[in-house]
């Protein structure tokens, strides 16, 4: 049975960030100029070692062990390679999803919001942190592809559990969002000594999200409804507080990267 074609749930892709083309060129250069030729060199070196071993020990060629190891390597390469390709596809969709949501959130800057993207945390990263008149929000982006032509699929949220197209996600987004909000709260308290309330959010870009809960602890929306809701919130932070918290978070991000090593 043929596998159905899948596509991103949004059509408008964001522009590339500064330096993105050069980063792709760096990856291609690393692959073509180093990794590929390193693999060729290692393969030829292994063949040379085998030939010299036979030459010095005066042993006749025996292709059976080499064939067995080669067969095992081919099978592993097929299994692991296929798994890596599937994971790479999912990661690529995730990259585009984060960029798309980031571009949508950046439109809030004209309304007095400040956005910090890709904040490192204890277990990975927090996709986006939005700081504005309505408060502080952590945004976890979940990019799920759709079957080509599918228009009736949706995300369902009852305040405790999320079902994506009728299926429960492998990793609980609600628990993840809570953990991210706690992390940002700790960071801001460490940087400013203030105990700041942080609202966790999960967004599914390009999906219709049905919420059947009143005042859930975690918001779950698509990107358009999320931006609308953020704009409509009553003011709880002054402009000075927004600047203070955003600058504190940027100091933390710069500190986690440290000095950039070029060699």
Structure notes:
This protein has a domain at 95-257. The protein is built from five helices and ten strands, in the order E-H-H-E-E-E-E-E-E-H-E-E-E-H-H. 50% of the residues lie in helices and 18% in strands. Strand 6 and strand 7 (162-164) form a beta hairpin. It is elongated. The longest helix is centred in the N-terminal third of the chain and has 44 residues, at 63-106. It has helices at 20-57, 63-106, 173-192, 223-232, 239-257, and strands at 6-7, 114-121, 124-132, 135-141, 146-147, 154-157, 162-164, 198-203, 208-211, 219-221. By secondary structure, the chain is an alpha/beta fold.
What Rg do the Cα atoms give? 25 Å
- H/E element order: EHHEEEEEEHEEEHH
User: Unreliable runs, pLDDT <50, ≥5 residues?
Assistant: none
Range of helix content: 40-55%
Number of strands: 10
> What is the makeup of the main sheet?
5 strands, mixed
Strand line-up in the sheet with most strands: 2-3-4-8-10
Large-scale geometry: elongated
The total count of helices amounts to 5
Structural class by sheet pairing and helices: alpha/beta
Q: Which whole number gives the mean pLDDT?
A: 85
How much strand content do the residues show?
Answer: 15-25%
What keywords describe this structure?
single chain, 263 residues, alpha/beta, five-stranded mixed beta sheet, three-stranded mixed beta sheet, 5 helices, 50% helix
Task: Provide a compact summary of the structure.
The protein contains five helices and ten strands, in the order βααββββββαβββαα.
